[in-house]
Design brief:
Helix 1 runs parallel beside helix 5 and helix 5 packs across helix 17. This protein has a four-stranded antiparallel β-sheet. It is mainly α. The protein has 19 helices and six strands.
């Protein structure tokens, strides 16, 4: 049957995707850390946070801060490592001379204490007093290679030419992969969607309605992890099923050795950027075995081995041990005198520490806010409510199908079956990841001052693909289309609300703060 609207859809993908990429570039090019007057009180006042009446009491700086394109402790910690590697040839980002002292003032010096690089996300070797980034060093090491190239070829310096260096790196790690991500996602949407409305809804959501757009202007691990998830899934799903572009294969069994290798490589890289994505890596390896039991596992494991070898090598080169710094959370590398994280001792003793990092919410409250509350996966991006229905539909279809291998089946049915399994696997992975974060009580901080549930961002491409059956269903009546438009509109609102800094609280939390309903900076009465 001829698809008479395929050409129009592809034109729409091109235009919408271009808008999405252009928005990202604009956010990077115009990036500058802004001090919003509404969040601060005059420097004469000595309180912190927002009072019960919603009045700001953070203290306005008495001197002008150095202009910076880095926004938070999170990204500044990574920028400090990149600078240290290229400019100093070391992972060391600072040093404490009197590291054996338990009493302030401490003699702290180095990049991480310089204006524009100051960060709470650092650890200190208790035996040497040397500071390192608490972030796993693989991503910073890879990007340090780009800075080295820019410095050697164009004589750019990350301090003197920070807007050029940082913009170039952010475009490389956040924007260019996003363009490829949209290209491949569009092919999969075409292959597995069934209606014009559902396909366009999914692609617009991917282009403009997720927090990958929000975080494009900051150096982070969440965006690359999401791209890697899609790059791992694509080789396993590029099946002809109905009307599909000519670039998609007709049979999973015909997947090349490079397809199987890339699936393993990018699944492992996603886990290297986001530890909970190990569950996705495991599911990917199982899928590879199922699709090609003879050579699939060997080729995929080669890709996994390369990533793991690089990950462990970078950890050892940086810290002198194979495990990352966050594996020592609560230990001496984190809880040195003067550490931000040493405040947990006050909390454990029954004291109060202002800020969302040290909130003492119970598990039920945290679970609610992570799903439906002020940092909610569904409340901030309600388009995922429809996606959840789609995942349920695929899971139900998967349960009702026989678990035979794909090779004897017709190509179209092979594609449909693999897609159903992706939906069921996505639901299982999502529940596993959510349960993982509910068990880490020291991480009930929603990722700090951030505009969305950033630890879950790597699931975004899986939810967009898994939501296709529901997106198609929404398109089959005018009333449902209106509902879909409303869900998409609120999602876009949440994504663009933190216009100049992704490391700001979501609009829902800000509303709750202003009304005095929730306030993590004020001690509960």
């Amino acid at each position: 049957m001829t698809d008479t609207t395929a050409s129009l859809r592809k034109s729409m993908y091109l235009l919408i995707g271009t808008v999405g990429v252009a928005v990202m570039v604009a956010k990077i090019a115009g990036a500058e850390n802004v001090y919003e007057p509404s969040r601060y009180a005059p420097a004469t006042e000595q309180n912190f946070g927002f009072d019960r009446e919603g009045k700001p009491t953070r203290i306005w700086p008495t001197t002008r801060p150095e202009p910076s394109t880095a926004f938070s402790s999170n990204d500044r910690s990574r920028w400090a490592t990149i600078k240290a590697l290229v400019d100093n040839g070391t992972y060391e980002i600072g040093r404490r001379s009197n590291f054996d002292s338990q009493v302030s003032p401490f003699d702290d010096k180095g990049i991480i204490f310089d204006d524009g690089y100051q960060s709470l996300d650092k650890v200190m070797n208790p035996a040497t007093g040397i500071y390192y980034s608490s972030k796993p060093p693989l991503l910073s090491t890879l990007l340090a290679g780009e800075y080295w190239l820019l410095k050697k070829t164009l004589n750019w310096n990350i301090d003197r030419d920070r807007w050029l260096v940082m913009a170039a790196i952010l475009i490389t790690v956040n924007v260019l992969p996003f363009a490829v991500y949209l290209l491949l996602l569009g092919k999969l949407i075409e292959a597995h969607g069934t209606t014009d409305f559902g396909k366009l809804f999914a692609f617009i959501l991917a282009s403009l309605g997720t927090f990958l757009t929000t975080f494009s202007m900051t150096l982070n691990n969440h965006s690359p992890a999401a791209y890697c998830v899609l790059f791992a899934v694509y080789p396993l799903l590029k099946i002809r099923a109905g009307s599909v572009s000519d670039g998609i294969k007709s049979s999973v069994a015909d997947a090349s050795g490079s397809d199987l290798f890339l699936a393993g490589f990018f699944a492992a890289l996603a886990a290297a950027f986001e530890l909970p994505a190990l569950s996705f890596t495991a599911v990917t390896l199982l899928a590879v075995i199922w699709l090609n039991p003879k050579r699939g596992l060997m080729l995929a494991l080669i890709g996994v081995f390369i990533v793991n070898a690089a990950w462990f090598a970078c950890n050892y080169a940086a810290l002198g041990k194979f495990m990352p710094a966050y594996g020592d959370f609560g230990g001496p590398w984190y809880d040195y005198p003067g550490s931000h994280w040493k405040k947990w001792e006050v909390v454990k003793a029954g004291g109060f520490v202002p800020g969302i990092d040290f909130n003492q919410e119970g598990t039920p409250i945290y679970a609610f806010h992570l799903l439906f509350g002020h940092h909610g996966w569904f409340s901030l991006t309600p388009a995922f409510l429809a996606a959840a229905v789609g995942l349920g539909m695929l899971t139900w279809r998967c349960i009702g199908s026989t678990p035979s291998p794909p090779t004897p089946l017709p190509p179209g049915e092979r594609g449909a079956r693999v897609f159903r399994y992706l939906g069921a696997a996505t639901l299982a992975i999502s529940l596993t990841v959510f349960a993982f974060y509910l068990t880490r009580t020291n991480s009930y901080n929603y990722g700090g001052n951030t505009s969305g549930p950033r630890w879950l961002f790597w699931l975004i491409p899986l939810w967009i693909l898994g939501g296709l059956p529901a997106f198609d269903w929404l398109g089959r009546s005018k009333l449902r289309q209106f509902l879909a438009a409303l869900l998409l509109g609120i999602s876009v609102l949440s994504v663009f609300y933190p216009a100049w800094n992704p490391w700001r609280n979501p609009w829902i939390l800000q509303l709750l703060e202003r009304t005095g309903t929730v306030n993590y900076d004020v001690k509960p009465k």
